Amino acid sequence: MKTLALTLLGLITLCIPACFSVEYNWYNTNIGGGGFVTNLIYNPAEEGLLYLRTDMGGSYRYDQANKSWIPIQDVFSGSEWWLFGCESIGIDTKEPNRVYIAAGTYMSYGENGAIISSDDYGKTWKHRWDAPFHFGANDDGRGRGERLAVNPVDNNIIYFGTRKSGLYKSSNYGESFEQVKGFPTNHDIPFILFVPGSKGKTIIVATDDTKAPLYISNDGGSSFKQISGQPNIGYYPQHGAFSADGKYLYVTYANSIGPNGATQGDVYRISLPDYKFKEVTPVHGSYETQQFGYTGVQTSGTNPGVVIVSTLNLWWPSDELYMSSDYGETWSEGVASHAELDISEYPWLDFGKADNLKFGWWIAALAMDPFNDNNVSYGTGATVYTTTDFTNAKKNAVTHWAPNVRGFEETAINDIEAPPAGPGIPQLLTALGDLGGFTQDDIHETVEMWVNPTYTTGNSVEYAVSNPKIVVSCGTDNAAYSTDGGHSWTPMKSLPYEKATGGHITISGDGKVVTWIPNQSQKPYYTTNYGASWTAVNSCNNCIQIRPDGKNPTLMYGYDHQDLYISEDGGKTYKKQASNMSSGQLMSPYEVEGHLWLACTYWGGVQISTDKGKTFKEVDPKFKTADSVGFGKAAPGSSAPYTVYVVGKYDGYYGVYRSTDLGSTWELLNDDSHQWGVYNSKVIGDPNIFGRVYVATNGRGVIVGDDTSVTGNGGSKTKTSSKTTTTKRPSSTSISNGNENCFSEKIEPYYPCCKTTTEIVSTDNSGDWGIENDEWCGIGNGNSNGNGNEPENESCYGYPCCSNCELTYQDETGKWGVEGEEWCGLRDICDSSPGDTRCPGEGTEYKCCSSCLDVYEEDENGPWAIEDEQWCSLPYYCQN
Predict the structure, then answer these.
(1) Which of 315, 405, 585, 860 has CB 3.0 to 4.6 Å from 32, enough for a Cys bridge?
(2) Integer CA distances (angstroms), 787 to 28, 286, 578, 767, 825, in order
(3) SS (H, E, C) 161-219
(4) What is the pLDDT of residue 285?
């Protein structure tokens, strides 16, 4: 019998709990918008400077060069989740680099709001003032604004209109605020405006006093009074905008603060400086047609007579925009009635029905480029549309719109799954609020949402570990199954009981037993016939989580936040396995039997079981609490069968952590600039790409992290490499400066030839690759001309042959691997060996090595290596 001695290795490894940081590249999966855009704000002092705010998903600045949005509020973490909603954005027209955010999501829960200040366009935040009251970015009235206003002359002075605490003022660029004495505190203040040409002395403040809501100060804010002569219409002011020549102020009104409940409204034009009110409403609703109010208003920065407004709660056929070129005296026909929407880049915007595409709803956000009247954008409850031919509306001609949401992600994610790769298997499955769910073969490409059924909210999704093409999901009022990887769905044939909805759903590893725990249910229900009949699981009463084993197809685990149960028949019956457990999230890693992890919400930190849940142990005492735990591909050379990812608080810092050694050591992946608000619902790794992690957020979509030492320019759609070491090309091979005829210019997708470097960063079936200017480039003639490791034109099942025997997927055609993010076929040699075994030592008490490892000893049974601190026999394919 062989014995393993540390002296054989020539070293002693001492594992000490510790945390190190690693460089990660963070980006989003591409869903595109997906939430309520509460306002779009141009800064007229700098061309192209545009901000976007949301009710619960932070705020953004538009990158004109790349036509994409940059998140600027990701500094708030789950420990301050209530600060991720944006109540207001304040722009500075004297120093456009300055910007302010009023952060705070709810008036009724969470904690008090805060105002943060930046002098570099929101790239970093210099000051923070913690208010003694709550903000309401996701409460009613969130589409009005702006509540923050910066004095255009003395820009150290900033005003903030609160919901219940009156008017506040800062005199030191937002470092601190004080209440303005004498201003009423019994009314909400939706917006504040400095009158043009008044040198910052004349200020208009809107309130919710429906009899006379507008106040004015003519002495720089020392005193305020209600403007006389206001129409006693009993409506709430929504937005205000000045004409380009400063002659008029336009104010929109509705009989609700919005975004719902408006059935009446008006638009008023106020002449300056005598403040005479004139109603200029484009059209009124009626009981016979449609009832609605008005909300958005914008004016041209170059053509004084141009003003546009949007309706509020005009539900059929959709909300409208109206344009006037003569100060509101006359108006165009509805812009929506002549609009063409191109949603080809974001096809889900028809919500699964070709005839269901709407121009928009909740159009509180309305923005006209102050330098170009043709560039107009508006926000809806789900996206931002932009046109570059808006002036066509003057002639009641067609305007052309498309979603403008690249980089902007505002979805609330309830569940995510990344199946192991295989033909027909998607890269990511996502269940989310308001939009149901998505199945993405490529996380960079948007797709149609799930249909049949179309959930209002998708709650849970799971695949069968032995056959990932079988997927189940549940959501609003229904559950469904798929046999093609989630690309098409069939509703369950019945519900476990009347009005069963939402909750948690899972499936046994062999795909034969589906278990559903609907919301408010006291027990799970299982079906073996996709819902034709359901049976209550009485042996796992009060279980709220059911997890399949990562490898054993009939082994399931139930958890009720106190006790653990085990099932050996796919989830039909359970027996108690462990008691007195901490409350938290239970997860099982893919392709390993008997391993369970528990992320403990209140006490117990992060725990592991390797004996099917009989016992658990804490992996690191520095983890006091954790919200979620997930798993991904093992690190190259690691003896651990998978990588562990945790969202939790380690040594006092809340973040995303990973361990490549089953919890002995931990690495922090994110930093203070990458916090994304609430991201505690789920974290998973990618089973196919080491280092890739997916984080489910509540308002910032699915965040993806790539280890930059592994993927290089991870996140881009260009070629990525899993190698972490570089090698020098042999000096006997000469490459001319320019490398004009290299292989990479002759393949699809096209990559340039390396012009200066000869350093090989990666090698795949195509050839050798280097990196120049942060982009991949080809080196040499490629493998087809004998420059690589592959014989010319060698094919396995019609695909390139793999350079190793690492099995990723198996079907009726054969065995498959993945190299360079492309499918490859395993050679016959991967299966060939004497006696149909994979390694010469397989008939002994030792296993075959899982990959080609360094040889430490040879005997009559062939070469031996060490894996998981045990001897293993080297496979035959490693010896050829």
Answers:
(1) 405
(2) 37, 77, 58, 7, 20
(3) ECCCCCEEEECCCCCCCEECCCCCCCCCCCCEEECCCCCCCCEEEECCCCCCCEEEECC
(4) 86
Q: Which of 640, 648, 605 is nearest to 624 (CA)?
A: 605
CA distance 549 to 825: 28
Burial class (CB in 10 A: 0-12, 13-18, 19+), 522: exposed
Class of residue 342 by CB neighbours under 10 A (exposed 0-12, middle 13-18, buried 19+)? exposed
The identity of residue 589, as a single letter, is P
Show the 3-state SS of 632-653: ECCCCCCCCCCEEEEEEEECCE
Burial letters 739-753, b for 16+ CB under 10 A, else e: beebbbeeeeeebeb
Query: Residue 479 pairs with which residues in a beta bridge?
Result: 474
Strands 428-432 and 759-760: unpaired
Nearest one of 266, 183, 268, 241 to 217, comparing CA atoms: 183
pLDDT of residue 134: 98
**802 to 412, 424, 751, 809: CA distances (angstroms):** 39, 19, 22, 13
Please tell me the predicted confidence (pLDDT) of residue 141: 97
- Give whole-number Cα distances, 438 to 449, 460, 486, 517, in Å: 5, 12, 8, 21
DSSP bridge partners of 116? 101, 128
- Exposure on the CB side of residue 42, measured as CA atoms within 13 A: 24
Cβ atoms of residues 257 and 208 within 8 Å: yes
Six token digits for residue 420: 């192991």
The Cα 488–Cα 509 span in angstroms is 20
Cα–Cα distance measured from residue 753 to residue 743, given in angstroms and rounded to the nearest whole number: 8
Beta bridge mates, 666? 19
Three-state SS string over 468-522 comes to: EEEEEEEECCEEEEECCCCCCCEECCCCCCCCCCCCEEEECCCCCCEEEECCCCC
With residue 8 as reference, give the H or E element that holds it.
helix 6-9
- Burial class for 201, CB neighbours closer than 10 Å (0-12, 13-18, 19+): middle
Q: How far is CA 830 from the centre of its chain?
A: 40
Type and span of the H or E element at 711? helix 708-711
User: How far, in Å, CA of 201 to CA of 41, rounded?
Assistant: 23
Q: Are 612 and 555 in contact (CB under 8 A)?
A: yes
Cβ-based neighbours of 112, under 8 Å, separated by 6 or more: 104, 130, 131, 132, 133, 134, 135
Q: State the 10-residue block means of pLDDT for the chain, 880 residues long.
A: 26 37 91 97 98 97 96 92 96 98 96 97 97 97 98 98 98 98 95 97 97 97 97 97 98 97 97 97 85 97 97 94 98 96 96 88 98 98 97 96 98 97 95 96 95 96 96 96 97 96 97 96 96 97 95 96 97 97 96 97 96 97 95 95 96 94 96 89 95 96 94 42 24 35 68 77 69 74 48 60 71 72 69 51 79 76 79 72
SS3 851: coil
- φ/ψ (deg, to 5) at 602: -115, -40
Q: Do residues 177 and 129 lie in contact, with contact meaning Cβ atoms separated by under 8 Å?
A: yes
| Residue 55: active-site member | yes
What global pTM score does this model have? 0.80
One-character DSSP codes across 433-453: TTTEEEEESSTTS--PBP-SS
Task: Give dist(CA 535, CA 533) in Å, integer.
Answer: 7
Q: What pLDDT was estimated at residue 749?
A: 56
- Catalytic residue among 373, 415, 434, 686, which? 434
Strands 467-475 and 564-567, bridge-based pairing: unpaired
Burial class (CB in 10 A: 0-12, 13-18, 19+), 509: buried
With CA atoms as reference, report the closest residue to 823 among 854, 802, 843. Answer: 802
Exactly one of 55, 266, 706, 764 is catalytic; name it. Answer: 55
